[in-house]
């Protein structure tokens, strides 16, 4: 395998494939990078002249795309052409939790990854380095290798018509949405796992050489391939565990009169604990934390480690509890029913500075309030109305926890009860209560007196992110409830 790569393909133009390849192209003008996807609309959006139409909203991304697109960065639907042309192929497709069959609700669905491997095996006529960029269960590289090696065997005659050799690398992505460009440019580390063979080492060298264009060599770490795959699941499990840990304490703070932000600050100054990822909230969301922990739990059960599985599953259980607790607090405070009451949601995205809503806590809180027939009015600076309806419909169809009592809501009922607004003032006009679900900076800057004046009294506000000025809001007259503040 060559150790200096000239042409890269990336299969999957999503939240990871798009920004990651844009940064590689920007930092390596000597490498041609082609990002391909089966979704023609996504590719058209990546190619749109108007950079505000890029399918992924990320601060700094339009500037990077503007610099590299058309020079050495290309977006296309020609998956086969890109595979054929390139020396290195990143697989960056989605790996959601399975919604059917064996492992339903727990295991990662690897059908898209498998399809990519089959397609590469079928199309390749020269040697390829295949890079796992998607987050995958430990030992997936083995499955990819088996497909790559056996698909070149003729089904009728059994004869090998091997045209190409393959190397498989694991190169998990650690970027967080909302800060993807900074995370990619200034990664704490780049992780490359390789197979224990001469080809594997050459491939590892080739990938390390690409990152070395902007990441210091000592931050590019290499491991065995299984360690690399498992490190990604472990990193996400540890990060999510910190949030569930502080959220568990938030419940105790509310009972005891302690303040969770004060507790977080006090423990975070211990350098062994550290101050990051201790912000108590309505619960973590995003496409990965829950999916990756459930996948880890599934793997532990598969390898007959029930105690380890139970330990990690509790992180997700606590997160479900936190979302439920928040919804219940709203209903309890509004005299035990929200039926027919107007509840305003500020924020729908799973965190600020992204238009991504996957697994956002807002979806689950909305669902609980809708079960009690609340009227929900949403304002989010970046999320489109159709996405909000799609999220609620998806939840109706794919409840993970089938023991939940929540009933099914039809699409018509959802559209009747949920309204999406273009301004926070419209969303909160005549509302009984406001719930803050995302920590968008602009929420802190609103004219809260004006919002209060437009609401029904008592004017309740539930700050699921602890971002608002408590004293100022109380002085205006709001009935304020924050997370973890007794
Ligand atoms: P995504 O859904 O945004 O993008 C995946 C894309 O792959 C979609 O556009 C889909 O159309 C395309 N695709 C699926 N099958 C295909 C095929 N056979 N051929 C061509 N295109 C195909 O997903 P994402 O958020 O970018 O996540 C991708 C992977 O990266 C996941 O495994 C995820 O766990 C991991 N990851 C995500 C993040 C994140 O912040 N979103 C961070 C680190 C790792
Ligand atoms: C997370 C990890 O941070 C990335 O390293 C990883 O690459 C990525 O998952 C992935 O594998 O997909 P992301 O989900 O994009 O990134 O965003 P985070 O900043 O981790 O936030 C996740 C959720 O936790 C959000 O809902 C956020 O609001 C919440 N959160 C985060 C808290 O409630 N408290 C905190 O202190 C931090």
Q: Can you give me a brief rundown of this structure?
A:
By secondary structure, this protein is an alpha/beta fold.
Features:
6-stranded parallel sheet; 8-stranded mixed sheet; binds uridine-5'-diphosphate-glucuronic acid; Rossmann fold; binds nicotinamide-adenine-dinucleotide; globular; 18 helices; alpha/beta; 486 residues
Verbal overview:
By secondary structure, the chain is of the alpha/beta class. The chain folds into two domains: 7-215, Rossmann fold (3-Layer(aba) Sandwich); 259-482, NAD(P)-binding Rossmann-like Domain (Rossmann fold, 3-Layer(aba) Sandwich). It is built from 18 helices and 14 strands. Helix 9 (225-256) runs parallel beside helix 12. The longest helix has 32 residues, at 225-256. The chain is globular and about 75 Å long. Bound molecules: nicotinamide-adenine-dinucleotide and uridine-5'-diphosphate-glucuronic acid (UGA). Uridine-5'-diphosphate-glucuronic acid is lined by residues 135, 173-177, 236, 239, 243, 277-279, 281, 284-286, 288-289, 350-351. The active site is at 288 (nucleophile). This is UDP-glucose 6-dehydrogenase. Keywords: NAD, Oxidoreductase. InterPro entries: 6-PGluconate_DH-like_C_sf, NAD(P)-bd_dom_sf, UDP-Glc/GDP-Man, UDP-Glc/GDP-Man_DH_C, UDP-Glc/GDP-Man_DH_C_sf, UDP-Glc/GDP-Man_DH_dimer, UDP-Glc/GDP-Man_DH_N, UDPglc_DH_euk.
